[in-house]
TrEMBL record:
The keyword Hydrolase applies. It is an enzyme of class 3 (hydrolase). It comes from Pelodiscus sinensis (Chinese softshell turtle). This is GTP cyclohydrolase 1. Keywords: GTP-binding, Hydrolase, Nucleotide-binding, Tetrahydrobiopterin biosynthesis.
């Protein structure tokens, strides 16, 4: 799915910015618009008590830099952001290397209610919830805790819920070559929740079904029943 079109994030920051052209604040004495139409005040940064206007983003940036430096953080390598996106540094091969076993088990394996925390790539705000995974092994099984690690690798990145769901399913398919895989993600998106009381309890549900879990309604039904109980 193309950037900016995620179902889970109905209006991205970029789209919203484009909907409000020319709404720069009135130029204060000596201010000038840069190439993007943002107004930059020369010299000292101005702080104002009300909501920031678009043209004050550079001032906000400076303010955040001051905070980061003030708490002893090196703004060049912000640790919190690194932690929240540490999934970029890890690969599925790293964690599954010695965790795949040959096993004569051909009944469905389900791990449900795996906690998931991620950041939406449109707004850089959290979305979080539960992931349910089921697969029907052919010969290979994986250590159960590794399924949670797979979720972590893909969720600790800037994400779109639909893509996260699919990436988890594809990673399991690639590693285990199972007869089928099902992944369901239920999440609350702070970018939706924070924009109105009516959306407080909204949850977004996405699913990816592959192999027999897609093709055979009976197998899919078994999975759906088991994750409900
Ligand atoms: Zn969002």
């Amino acid at each position: 799915q193309a950037l900016g079109q995620g179902m889970a994030c109905p209006s991205s920051f970029r789209q919203r910015s484009q909907q409000r052209p020319g709404k720069a604040p009135p130029a204060a004495g000596g201010s000038r618009a840069d190439a993007k139409g943002k107004v930059r005040a020369p010299g000292l940064v101005q702080y104002r008590l009300g909501a920031p206007e678009v043209g004050e983003l550079p001032a906000l940036e400076d303010a955040y830099l001051s905070i980061l430096k003030g708490v002893g953080e090196n703004p060049a390598t912000p640790k919190a952001m690194q932690f929240l996106t540490k999934g970029y540094q890890e690969t599925i091969e790293d964690i599954l290397n010695d965790a795949i076993f040959d096993e004569d088990h051909n009944e469905m394996v389900i791990v449900k209610d795996i906690d998931m925390f991620s950041l939406c790539e449109h707004h850089l705000v959290p979305f979080f919830g539960k992931v349910h995974i089921g697969y029907l092994p052919t010969k290979k099984v994986v250590g159960l805790s590794k399924l949670a690690r797979i979720v972590e690798i893909f969720s600790r990145r800037l994400q779109v819920q639909e893509r996260l769901t699919r990436q988890i399913a594809l990673a399991i398919t690639e590693a285990l070559k199972p007869a089928g895989v099902a992944v369901i993600v239920e999440a609350s998106h702070m970018c939706m929740v924070m924009r109105g009381v009516q959306k407080m309890n909204s949850r977004t549900v996405t699913s990816t079904m592959l192999g027999v879990l897609r093709e055979d309604p009976k197998t899919r039904g078994e999975f759906l029943t088991l994750i409900k109980n």
